[in-house]
UniProtKB/TrEMBL annotation:
It comes from the Bacteria. The keyword Transferase does not apply. Belongs to the UPF0065 (bug) family. The keyword Signal applies. Residues 1-25 form the signal peptide. This is Tripartite tricarboxylate transporter substrate binding protein BugD. It holds the Pfam family TctC. Keywords: Signal.
Length: 327
């Protein structure tokens, strides 16, 4: 009889759990969702987040509010989400820095691979190698020669340790085997402002931040880091065309939730992301910025988890060889 009571109790508990899960799934979301972007407002990752959040809000029937929590190469914002209540109402949109910070930072407030639930990949943004408009070299080969000959004076701007521009700049210096003078800023905006003003020489940044300036002729473009030329910048050669063999890098973005977020919420968010990435407005705006939405098969938890694991392994030796770490 005691065994029977135990079985009946477990059955009843399971029924309550299943009923609660079904009720949660049916009602979620019931209020505003916060999407944390771990970088300053107006930057390239913020632009991606706001486009996706707007479309997902329509599908979910609840607003997604973007909150910018910048600092420490994106780790402050990521840490905020890792420590948030796992109820489906706080998510993180982060880029490749989610993977590189695992090596860049000796101490993190969270375990990169195990502190989050995975929602899906959003987009993979190409990078551009750009310079102040009056820099002397006319093509990438000339720029490489110029950087090597003037390595003690050429300045390379970035948006801070862990930012996409920092990572690309580090990879560029590794590719040409030449250390350059790096100038870190507190965000992409001020870095671009000084590049436009001629206070710094070079930057390697996302098309979402450079396309309009390239098209307007206010900065000089030397290469894109995609496998092929971009429709939005047809006259800009690839880095490989310009002489940098195998220099291909994209700044992929993904959405995460705190560990322990109900699977029903994660699944609903993933489905909503897939809807958003097919939204005509999102597709069109991404195209204008030189990128494209991730395919549906990549806008899934499994795809994002696999991407993060692979990218941590890929960047670890690059960062260790450069010796650029942060506490």
């Amino acid at each position: 009889m005691k065994t029977l009571k135990t079985v009946l109790g477990l059955t009843a508990a399971l029924a309550v759990t299943l009923s609660s899960a079904a009720a949660f799934a049916a009602g979620y979301p019931e209020r505003t969702i916060t999407m944390v972007v771990p970088f300053a407002a107006g930057g390239p990752t913020d632009t991606v987040a706001r486009l996706v959040a707007e479309s997902m809000s329509k599908d979910l029937g609840q607003q997604i509010v973007v909150e910018n929590v910048g600092g420490a190469g994106g780790t402050l914002g990521a840490g905020r989400v890792a420590a948030a209540e796992p109820d489906g109402y706080t998510v993180l949109l982060h880029h490749i820095g989610m993977a590189t910070s695992a090596t860049l930072y000796r101490k993190l407030a969270y375990d990169t691979l195990n502190a989050f639930e995975y929602v899906g990949l959003v987009t993979d943004v190409p990078m551009t190698i750009v310079a102040r408009k009056d820099l002397e070299p006319t093509d990438l080969k000339g720029l490489i020669d110029y950087m090597k000959a003037n390595k003690d004076t050429v300045t390379v701007a970035n948006a801070g340790i862990g930012a996409a521009s920092h990572l690309c700049g580090m990879l560029l210096m590794s590719a040409i085997d030449t250390p350059l003078v790096t100038v870190p800023y507190k965000g992409t905006g001020p870095a671009m402002t000084d590049l436009l003003g001629g206070q710094v020489d070079i930057m390697c940044d996302q098309t979402t931040n450079t396309t309009k300036q390239i098209q307007g002729g206010t900065i000089k473009a030397y290469a894109v880091t995609s496998p092929a030329r971009l429709d939005v910048l047809p006259d800009v050669p690839t880095a490989v065309e310009g002489g940098l063999a195998d220099f291909q890098v994209g700044i992929w973005h993904g959405i995460y939730a705190p560990k322990g977020t109900p699977s029903e919420a994660v699944e609903r968010l993933s489905k909503s992301l897939q809807v958003a990435l097919k939204d005509e407005n999102v597709v069109a705006r991404f195209a204008e910025l030189g990128t494209a939405p991730s395919p549906e098969a990549d806008a899934t938890p499994a795809a994002l988890k696999a991407k993060l694991e692979g990218e941590i392994a890929r960047w670890k030796p690059v960062i260790e060889a450069a010796g650029q770490f942060a506490d």
